[in-house]
Design a protein that fits this description.
The complex is a heterodimer of chains A (164) and B (452). Chain A is of the alpha+beta class. Chain A is 37% helix and 21% strand. In chain B, helix 12 links the parallel strand 7 and strand 8. The chains are: A alpha+beta (164), B alpha/beta (452).
Chain lengths: 164, 452
């Protein structure tokens, strides 16, 4: 009976200690936040040569304009989306209706594995965005939560400039 | 026929023995590795639901690890049997089994609760969604139900109400449970789903233990049966309710049986073939002869009296750690209770020692319970060892033969002895208490319980 009590309390105390350790950790962000842009000026459609912003403004400082000028380059931050495994927030640069640059403002993970998945999925998501020119992109297999969060954040940014 | 005795053999490589400390250490390291897997995959726990889910993950991982350890303990691996001892392995298995059922149940409840909290849904709704939408969770749920069933059946109270055969049959369901629970670990386990390496190691652990089971519980006994072709050569009545069975065969020395060990014997007659009973060797094994001495307690042992010479025998073993390998001191005291004399008779004959080093105390309730006394006297005279017969019903007023005072008077320098004890449980408890009181360190008391 004593041994039963001992093993039960031992297990519970051990569990609580282990879990408490992790509760006091911090979400981890990807080292350098990845970005991707269309090649400058020498793009295949010279009429809409993009000027991708090399030094993007911080999050939330999107230059809102009620009358979108067709050729003005704009940079817009999407909303931060919390998924089960972390937080995703992107920022896009558009010229007219063309997405010329997209980058992460936030890409955090609650655990190491998710961080690894994120860093593998991020460049694919960015590349898909540039080729799809919308938020309707394929889910990266093995990173469905991150892909969903990414698409949501991206769409919220594109909504601001009227790109569906 | 003269009783078998030890004979010089050609030197053979030393036998591998895994000590209890090493075995427990290895189990502990494995558990830490499992926790490390979770630790590495988890950096941050956010919120109460996540907290519960992670508690469920840890208990689940540990349960998955523990079931395989429980099987490994029962795989009859010779190095474990010799080093840890069958009786201790069985005790670990029983205690670990209860613990594992608790872990599996805790895992189930914590995951349901944690997912429900995270999803802001009810427990019933979450249970339904877990069962129907998560891959293989249904099978895992059946598995946990089976484990609980086996746990209830094995609980001591229930076991007394059930026959051994029923209990044993129900126990086989654990294999089914382990098989059913396996796939959900990979298809939903956060620590495996994206980690091929962890999946490989985990599978390897399961495969290795399965291989041990198949080899040591199935193939090795078969191979041994074909190689040694054991058969009864003589049955001798030792007293009214004790018989000795002499078994011969080919290449018996290759079995590497040691005095103090036992085999699981299966006598192939129409009535006895289905039961494998553990009986200790009651004499040092000879290259052509083994002997067991059995007290008749039921219909099975009673039938041994009528075994005809030539009856084929399957013997699984040798098992048990109750051997000279445990000895650490020059002087040795052997304490036998009733039919517990059998392994001690073999040790009394073979433990190395100078005259006066070895003492045997043989405790029985009635004079007619003494068996093998002629042999014991002969060994004592030949080796100039001492044997004391302690006859009389047990007393509980401090004047029993095994009371500290009487023991100390019988055995001068008692605290400097290694002590081997074998007998019925109450007698062993009395002996242990007296020995501890008399200053024998716990690590120098070696016992074997034959009620496992």
């Amino acid at each position: 009976m004593k041994r039963v009590l001992l093993s039960v309390t031992g297990t519970v105390v051990g569990l609580v200690a282990l879990l408490n350790f992790k509760t006091h950790g911090h979400p981890i962000a990807a080292g350098t936040l990845p970005s991707a842009g269309l090649p400058n000026a020498s793009s295949t459609s010279p009429a809409q040569a993009g000027t991708s912003t090399s030094a993007p403004p911080r999050a939330g400082t999107s230059s809102r304009s009620s009358t979108p000028a067709a050729s003005a380059a704009r940079t817009i931050a999407g909303s931060a989306v919390e998924t089960r495994y972390g937080v995703v927030q992107v920022q896009v640069s558009v010229r007219g209706t063309k997405i010329t640059n997209v980058q992460f403002l936030q890409l955090t993970a609650f655990d190491q594995r998710s961080a690894e998945i994120n860093s593998a999925a991020a460049p694919i998501l960015l590349q898909e965005t540039l080729s799809a020119q919308s938020a309707h992109i394929d889910t990266v297999s093995g990173a469905s939560y991150t892909s969903d969060g990414y698409a949501q954040s991206l769409q919220s940014a594109l909504d601001q400039v009227g790109i569906k | 026929m003269t009783p078998p005795s030890a004979r010089a053999r050609a030197p053979q490589p030393p036998l591998l023995r895994i000590s209890p400390e090493v075995a427990l250490g290895a189990i502990g390291v494995g558990a830490l590795a499992v926790i490390a897997l979770w630790w590495k995959d988890t950096i941050f726990i956010s919120g109460w639901g996540d907290w519960l889910t992670n508690a469920g993950r840890i208990t689940g991982l540990l349960a998955g690890y523990a079931v395989i350890v429980l099987l490994a303990l029962m795989a009859r691996v010779p190095a474990l049997e010799r080093g840890v001892g069958t009786d201790r392995l069985v005790r670990w298995h029983a205690a670990g089994g209860r613990y594992t059922v608790c872990l599996a149940v805790a895992h189930t409840l914590l995951i349901i609760w944690g997912y429900a909290v995270t999803a802001h849904s009810g427990l019933v709704h979450e249970t339904g969604s877990l069962l129907t939408t998560y891959p293989d969770v249904m099978m895992g749920t059946v598995a946990v139900g089976l484990l609980v069933l086996v746990g209830i059946v094995s609980a001591r109270a229930a076991r007394r109400r059930l026959s051994y055969e029923t209990w044993h049959f129900v126990h086989l369901y654990t294999y089914l449970a382990i098989a059913l629970a396996f796939s959900h670990q990979f298809s939903t386990g956060a620590d495996f789903i994206n980690r091929a390496q962890a999946r490989w190691l985990w599978s390897l652990m399961y495969i290795a233990v399965a291989a041990l089971l198949v080899w040591y519980r199935l193939l090795a006994p078969l191979r041994s049966a074909l190689r040694h072709r054991l058969h009864v050569v003589e049955v001798r009545q030792e007293n009214a309710d004790t018989v000795s069975v002499y078994v011969s065969g080919l290449r018996i020395d290759e079995l590497r049986a040691e005095p103090g060990q036992f085999f699981r014997w299966r006598f192939l007659t129409r009535d006895l073939w289905w039961a494998a009973n553990p009986y200790s060797l009651s004499a040092a094994p000879r290259p052509d002869l083994l002997r067991v001495t059995v007290k008749i307690t039921g219909s099975h042992s009673a039938a041994l009296r009528h075994l005809a010479p030539g009856t084929k025998v399957l013997a699984e073993g040798p098992y048990g750690s109750f051997t000279a390998a445990r000895r650490t001191r020059r002087k040795v005291l052997l304490i036998a209770g009733g039919v517990g004399i059998t392994p001690l008779r073999a040790l009394f004959e073979t433990l190395p020692g100078r005259p006066g080093d070895i003492t045997l105390l043989y405790r029985v309730n009635r004079p007619e319970d003494l068996v093998l006394a002629t042999e014991l006297d002969a060994i004592a005279a030949q080796r100039r060892a001492r044997v004391h017969y302690l006859v009389g019903p047990p007393k509980f007023d401090g004047s029993d033969h095994l009371s500290p005072r009487r023991l100390q008077r019988l055995v001068p320098g008692l605290a400097q002895h290694d002590v081997y004890v074998c007998g019925p449980e109450p007698m062993m408890n009395a002996a242990r208490t007296s020995l501890r009181t008399s200053g024998v360190p716990r690590r120098n008391i070696h016992d074997e319980s034959f009620t496992f």
